[in-house]
């Protein structure tokens, strides 16, 4: 093991550049997948004839596919039908598809957890279905969804490492490049990668616990 050689300023800068790409992919994927999940979760909760069933089938299909396969599909298969994405957006699209399916189930479960009595009370007070959903059901459900949603966001951040298979210049890709220069850099480099992932994921966990305690 060569910690001094592995932790040169140039190597650390190179890892940070890769980590910055990881964070960008994760941030965009979180925002987009959560937006899609809210829509899908609400539509499934509303049990709209036909729509709810189709969305449920798609969600179950995606949830039971490996993320790695979806990454290969967005980067290698989509160009065959005329949709060519660069490595960055192929990774984002794959993560959004996969995570939106996962998050939509959390959203639907959260909505279903709101007591029927509150919904009936809101409707009897004059609110229509959409107003009840927006003003009564969704706010309560979101508070209950915080822990599992943040947990899924943490998984998403870790899942960005799978984009190494399409040579996206993210953290794991840069770590592999450094390791390729000297076998003695492997352990020190992966330790530093672990520290970087841990810092961000632990911060998300702390935020989740504070939000959970705040709304307890």
TrEMBL record:
The keyword Glycoprotein does not apply. Residues 19-208 form the ABC transmembrane type-1 domain. It is a multi-pass membrane protein. Keywords: Amino-acid transport, Cell membrane, Membrane, Transmembrane, Transmembrane helix, Transport. One of its GO terms (molecular function) is transmembrane transporter activity. It comes from the Bacteria. The chain crosses the membrane at residues 20-43, 55-76, 88-107, 183-204. Pfam families: BPD_transp_1. Its main location: membrane. Gene3D superfamilies: MetI-like (1.10.3720.10). One of its GO terms (biological process) is amino acid transport. CDD domains: TM_PBP2. The keyword Isomerase does not apply. GO terms for cellular component: ATP-binding cassette (ABC) transporter complex. It is found in: Cell membrane. Belongs to the binding-protein-dependent transport system permease family. PANTHER family: INNER MEMBRANE AMINO-ACID ABC TRANSPORTER PERMEASE PROTEIN YHDY, MEMBRANE COMPONENT OF AMINO ACID ABC TRANSPORTER. This is Glutamine ABC transporter permease. It comes from Brevibacillus fortis.
């Amino acid at each position: 093991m060569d910690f001094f050689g592995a932790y040169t300023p140039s190597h650390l800068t190179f890892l940070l550049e890769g980590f910055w790409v990881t964070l960008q992919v994760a941030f965009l994927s979180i925002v987009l997948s959560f937006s899609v999940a809210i829509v899908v979760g609400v539509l499934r909760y509303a049990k709209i004839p036909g729509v709810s069933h189709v969305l449920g089938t798609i969600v179950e299909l995606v949830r039971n596919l490996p993320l790695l396969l979806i990454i290969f599909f967005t980067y290698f298969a989509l160009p065959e039908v005329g949709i060519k994405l660069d490595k960055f957006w192929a990774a984002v699209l794959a993560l959004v598809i996969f995570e939106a399916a996962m998050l939509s189930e959390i959203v639907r479960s959260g909505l279903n957890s709101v007591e029927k009595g509150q919904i009936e009370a809101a409707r009897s007070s004059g609110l229509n279905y959409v107003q009840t959903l927006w003003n009564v059901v969704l706010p309560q459900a979101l508070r209950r969804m915080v822990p599992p949603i943040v947990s899924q966001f943490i998984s998403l951040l870790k899942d960005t490492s799978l984009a190494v298979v399409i040579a996206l210049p993210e953290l794991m890709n840069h770590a592999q490049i450094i390791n390729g220069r000297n076998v003695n850099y492997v352990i020190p480099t992966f330790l530093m990668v672990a520290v970087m992932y841990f810092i961000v994921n632990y911060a998300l966990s702390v935020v989740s616990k504070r939000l959970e305690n705040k709304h307890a």
